[in-house]
Amino acid sequence: MAMAATQPVIRPLADDVPSSPAVGAFGKRPHVTIRGLSKRFDKAVIYDNFDLDIPRGELISVFGPNGCGKSTLINMIAGLIPVDAGQILFDGMLLSEIKFGYVFQNYREALFPWMRAFDNIAYPLKLMKVPAVERKRRTEALVTRLGVKLDLNKYPYQMSGGQQQLVSIMRALIVEPEILFLDEPFSALDYEMTLFMREQLQRLFMETKTTTVLVSHDLEEAVYLADRVLLLSRYPARVADFVAYDGERPRTDATLSDPDFVRIKAHCLEVFQREVRRS
Amino acid sequence: MTLTLRKFDPLLPLVGVAVLVAVWWVATAAKWVDPVLLPSPATTFEAFWKGMDGGRLGFDFMKTVYRTVMATMIAAVIAIPLGIILGSSERLYRSLEFVIDFFRSTPASAMFPLFLVLFGVGDETKISVAAFGAILVILFNVAYGVMNARKTRLLAAKVMGASPLRVLIDVTLLESLPQTFVGLRNGVSLALVIIVVAEMFIGSQDGLGHSVFEAQQLFDMPRMYAAIFAAGALGYALNLLFLLMERSFVHWGGK
After folding, report:
1. Looking at the structure, do residues A114 and A196 belong to the same domain, yes or no?
2. Domain with A136 in it
3. Residue in B with minimal Cα distance to A177
4. Cβ–Cβ contact B248 with A under 8 A
5. A112-163 tens-digit pLDDT
6. Pick from B159, B174, B250: CB nearest A102
7. How many contacts, defined by CB atoms under 8 Å, are there between A and B?
8. Are B162 and B172 within 8 A, CB to CB?
9. A255 closest CA partner among A224, A232, A276
10. ipTM beyond cut 0.90
């Protein structure tokens, strides 16, 4: 390893890592199909004719150089920002026809401080005109199912950062979404809470098997949680690699030293650094 | 030593009051000032107590309370919805910003003659001039509260499928509430100032402004000081009332 650092050897990117092309590789119908996606901010072309398939029931981590458009990608898929061109379909349907959840990085600004945690979680149901009794029943059912230990009578500002983000995630899950987007959900938390929340997210995912797209700025986290890691290039963003990791769940601290995990993480890092250097 | 004293900290605000009364008492007892110009604390308090306890001062006090509260309520009813509309469209607000700022900067007392022509010499004039002043202050604050609503929170509601109207009712309005209360507090203070001035000079027969002015004309100094303190107490109480309302409505404020 020390040799490699001082004397860089040019070798083909590891063939022993299972990666798939961006489009049409899952042998089953993809959940999300993105075709011809284009987006520019002023003069910067962030996406230019970008294609991607997202498989169903998997947790996809999106990782790439700073400012490459990781968040822009999920924000466009989730309809938070408009696309300049291109089409995004969910099993052939439009965003307006499906149920989805979105978790913001900044939970402090995303939750409603005037509502108790319970009402925050149930708010999407209120928008769907679900009666109060049913809202209560479904929220309680979600809490039981996720095994979350939280006092839902508290207001967000009475909770820790991790608890608040957990409430945000539950608010996204209450509608039983077909797809869940998370934009760097743990980056505002301290390390201890981040580790705890990773476990929570993994449990939620194992429990619900909801297609999940997670933007992460932490490679270890990205690989640890993912079924597939989507590595993006600098903008205009291309798929630099789409790496599968099938480590058994639940993954634990032991996973971090598992040879497969280490190999895939090293591979992702190599791709990432190659993309960072390419300017 | 310091620790045992700490438990008396809530009483600290009383220190200033005690010092003020003490200096006042010494100044009058030692005859540093003419007792006609500055009566003793005891004489003044007696005038205050007699006036408030079923006397003339109590009546004037209630008149001023009524006018100030009316003016503030009218201002709030007009300014809050208008502020929400203006704040919802930044371009609309920018087009009217100069007009609002101009009249917000115009001393409301300069409008007395105009309002006298419009409404005559009755209560309507005093209340409407005060309301006019308060409207602009409240409007300005509400509009800014709406414009500065956290974008993430609006986006969060939108992404959950809330219609623009629902976003306005469920998020924008509550987001603007702290700033709205700032406007209400400033508005009620301004309304009180305008009402008291109007009571002094616009052919008024009652109210605290009239009371101060009349006592001065009659050289009844204890009564004049009593009326000034009544006005001060009213201003303080109104501000406190709105602060307490704010704390119970906007429990999340500053957190």
Report:
1. no
2. 105-176
3. B160
4. no
5. 999 999 999 999 999 999 999 999 999 999 988 877 788 999 999 999 988 9
6. B159
7. 46
8. no
9. A224
10. no
